[in-house]
Amino acid sequence: MSTPVEKWVAELEVLCQPDKVWWFNGSEEEAKKLIRIGMEEEKLNGNPVFTELNQKTYPNSYYHRSHSNDVARTEQLTFVCHDNKEKTGPNNNWMDPKAAKEKMNGLYKGCMKGRTMYVLTYMMGNPDSPYAKACVQVTDSCYVAISMRIMTRMGKHVLDKIGKSGNFVKGVHSIGDLHPERRFIMHFPDEGLVMSFGSGYGGNALLGKKCFSLRIASWLGYKEGWLAEHMIVIGIEDPKGNISYAVAALPSACGKTNMAMLQSALPGYKVWTLGDDIAWLNIGPDGRLYAINPEAGMFGVAPGTSMKTNPNMMRTLKNNKFFPTLYTNTAVNVETDEPWWEGHDDPAPKNAVDWQGRKWDPSVKEKAAHPNSRFTVSVSNCPTVSKEINNPKGVPISAIIFGGRRSKLIPLVYESHDWNHGVFLGSIMGSETTAAAAHTIGSLRRDPMAMLPFCGYNMGDYFSHWMSIGKKLKQPPKIFFVNWFRTDENGKYMWPGFGDNIRVLKWMMERTHGRKAAKETAIGYVPHEEDLDLSGLNLPKETLKKLFEVNLKEWENEIDDINAFYYKFGDKLPAELKKEYEKLDKEIRKSL
Ligand code: SAT
Ligand code: MN
Q1: Chain segment 175-216, per-residue pLDDT in tens
Q2: For the chain, how many helices (H) and strands (E)?
Q3: Which helix (H) or strand (E) element contains residue 132?
Q4: Among 427, 430, 436, 564, whose CB has the most other CB atoms within 10 angstroms?
Q5: Residue of 141, 121, 154, 122 whose CA lies nearest to 70
Q6: CB within 6 Å of ligand 1 — which residues?
Q7: What pTM did the predictor assign?
Q8: d(CA 161, CA 122)
Q9: Which are the catalytic amino acids?
Q10: Model pLDDT for residues 565-579, shown as the tens digit of each residue
């Protein structure tokens, strides 16, 4: 008698018609074999899938070049297929589930002829955690298979967990012919199923990541009473050795990864890394909020990463505990076989190939590395990895941090009045676009909780769900908002950022332990100037004052913009959020 997993895989074998089926056991030996296959047999675009990097300076590291049209998530081809459009919400593309499946099955028919179907059995979360979920993904890409080994907890033991229950999240992936018009990522939340075709890129193809751990998981959380969030998880240690835990959601290009591995500028303080992208938040038996990071690896943006911006990431990349580390679409120095990217500590190589394999030297105008080039590395290679990373219960959360990139208006840090007001702050989160995002520079994009592309159901219902979680918590975390990017009248950043952000984290921790008072304003609690630890930092009093300034007279446009944004959610917008909006609106109108 075959098990539910075997039955499901057998059906896919008939549909996709691979030459071979390879069930992964998750061992290092197997990963080494697969890397060999990627170097010697499997091809992408006529090139080997992997090439070896300098094993002396970058041990266990391999290079992968994607198809040049396959370098990022494709939101316009990503669908959330609930049985009706309203459940999916204005924040997602919708397709009728039956039509979506027919479309995908058509694409999958015979798509693995001449290829191997890799069967990956893995857990999101520590298998011993009550919050972990068992998953199975099939793929015909050895790059995807190896990436999943880094990003998840993979192995045959997962099959024992699933047993006869048939309780597992399913992922079907084929790289297809990489034609951008035949590239689809379909989610079926009620079935716990993701179908992906035509891309090998992280968020499109590593189905345990954004597809399952955010889109599908957020729906499971809605039904089961927990939250799947686009958040880092960190521990903040004080000089006495007490560690408090926080989660943070920041839009892209706001230093999220740097914060996850922050190197403290304050002596005696230390940040421990638990997660750099995704957090699952559950209410523990004691009524507190607990976080686990369902992932086991980091899929980080390479350009801009250096000893100056993120020393702990650079150290992680040189560590060789876990096999392997991958580099995708960076440049390569052909004299040293080392990866390189814009913003790297090493000077630009004189003799390199760029991310598309073309000869490159510093006189070439185009960038050597793709702006979204990435490394894929196990979190266990990180020198600041928390000893709680595998704690099945997760870590108790004292603070939730939202943030954005705002040149004006928003103080360096402030604290919400209470849970509902904190959810309001998350819901109006927004960031001014940078050159990296292909939008007008400086325009404001609202991205509630940094979840807009990742919430697997109607975002109005999602806001209500946040409200209901708050009601169930006995000791809700405090909610903060940060903005490292406020500028002065000359357009210069007023706050040094990076390792100095520990000063802000320190203030938050003092607030959560009731050790510091704060100034009440219409937008929330702002620190008293003397309460931010500026020791060793030469910051003029005047600057600090401006960093904390709240000038309601300047908020008229902001509140109108929030109103327009909220309008999109129609009747689904919870009454609690409307109330928070109206309170702030009244204060602003009063000040004008
Ligand atoms: O979605 S990924 O995690 O692959 C990266 C991204 O945010 O685009
Ligand atoms: Mn992310």
Answers
A1: 999 999 999 999 999 999 999 999 999 999 999 999 999 999
A2: 16, 32
A3: none
A4: 427
A5: 141
A6: 72-73, 202-203, 209-210, 299
A7: 0.97
A8: 10
A9: 254
A10: 999 999 999 999 999
